[in-house]
Automatic annotation (TrEMBL):
InterPro entries: HTH_HxlR, WH-like_DNA-bd_sf, WH_DNA-bd_sf. Coiled coil: none annotated. Signal peptide: none annotated. The keyword Secreted does not apply. The keyword Oxidoreductase does not apply. It comes from Paraconexibacter sp. AEG42_29. SUPFAM superfamilies: Winged helix' DNA-binding domain. This is HTH hxlR-type domain-containing protein. GO terms for molecular function: DNA binding.
Amino acid sequence: MSRETRTAPDVASGCCPLYHEAVELIGRRWTGAIVATLLGVHPHPMRFGEISKGVPELSDRMLSERLRELEERGVVERHVAPGPPVRVTYGLTAMGAGLEPALAALRSWAQHWLDEEAGSAAPRTN
């Protein structure tokens, strides 16, 4: 889909194509957790193992796949420092860092609405 056809909201569907694309990108399994880990308290380029520790349930294969997807979309940069040993780090681009306010708002929403122990969560039906 070309950039021109994605810029205007699709009135018939009620969903902006760019919004939909953003939700699909960051909403992929583990992607939000990876970006949140890279944002961290003190954002800095991280090695694969550091990211893996930040999202312990994530397999190395899936982490590698998601990092590759994020790199292709311009959210993450992969830096290779010549060795020996070769040192590979991953960091957020300006585009990736721009996700910080959205992820902070989502974290706040989750703490308010999904934290059952806080007592503020409405009963979930599923």
